[in-house]
Amino acid sequence: MTVKSQLHACGDSLMVAVRAAQRAGTPDVQNLKTLRACQDIIERLEQSATEVSAVEIELALSVLTQASIELGRQQAPARTVLGAVRNAVERLERLRTDFSA
């Protein structure tokens, strides 16, 4: 997969997380802000996919990992939300591996 397609897939996972968070009985505004910030990071990387550096991937991975940890600390985050964010993290980890190869 190309860098752009991997970033696009990561963005798709985050979109699933946002939609699931919005469908919650009482959507948590802070969770939605966190998810949208993650989406923004990935979208910006995707726009410059041909020039993305390993450092930028590492930074995005760090932010998404932290978001996953924070969401996991919530009382009852939707499994779909947490699973989608973790999926995005896994995709970035694979992309990081591709960059170091």
Element order, helices and strands? HHHH
Q: How many helical stretches? A: 4
What is the domain total for the residues?
1
**Which overall shape is indicated by the principal axes computed on the Cα atoms?**
elongated
Give the CATH architecture.
Answer: Up-down Bundle
What distance lies between the first and last C-alpha atoms, to the nearest angstrom? Answer: 14 Å
Largest sheet: none
Binned, the helix content reads over 70%
How would you describe the overall organization of this protein?
This protein is mainly alpha-helical and 101 residues long. It has a single domain, classed as Substrate Binding Domain Of Dnak, Chain:A, Domain 2 (Up-down Bundle), CATH 1.20.1270. It is 80% helix and 0% strand. It has four helices and no strands. The chain has helices at residues 3-22, 29-47, 54-73, 79-100. Helix 2 packs antiparallel against helix 3 (54-73) and helix 3 (54-73) runs antiparallel to helix 4 (79-100). The model has no long low-confidence stretch (mean pLDDT 90).
Protein traits:
101 residues, mainly alpha, Substrate Binding Domain Of Dnak, Chain:A, Domain 2
Question: TL;DR?
Answer:
This protein has helices at residues 3-22, 29-47, 54-73, 79-100.
Draw up the topology in text.
Layout lengths: L2 H20 L6 H19 L6 H20 L5 H22 L1
Helix pairs in contact: 1-2, 1-4, 2-3, 3-4
